[in-house]
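Sorry, explain these tokens?

___
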Amino acid sequence: MGEAQDNGIPRFNFPKQTVRQGRETANLMARIMKGMAAGQRALEIQKEAEEIAEATGKQVSELTVEELPNFRISDLDLPGPEESDLIYDDWVKLLARHVEYVPDEWLMDDVPDEIDWSQPDSFYDYLDNDRWGDMQKAFQESRQPENEELAGNSKRRSSTTTSTPN
């Protein structure tokens, strides 16, 4: 726990990856982003339905599809509980690959002094659920080049050599 350079946010490490690792990471991110987009769309539909219900004096449950101008049948393709669990698991797998440090205030009480964040169960066992969204946001923000120093990311090494055929 308590590290000397604690700046109140998690620290991530994005080392070089093999093509296989990069593909696995890309697949995890694609599934996560698809799930997040579906969840965001569901929130937009709910907000729009609430606004229309208020304007018409109806309950949301009384609205018809015709009364929801931006509703599409594809909006019904939302992840169910099992798929949501898989998306959550994908997030944890991704975080376990890159998290080096989590601030003490993001953790549950009475955690061990040393936590191996490379183990997905560490997130399930020690991260305060109220900080789950913060962790996702911190990860996404840390991937932005302008935030690399802020998040404490290790520098990605780039190759300056090229190979030429013999």
In short: The two ends are 52 Å apart (CA to CA). Helices lie at 19-56, 81-98, 120-126, 132-142.
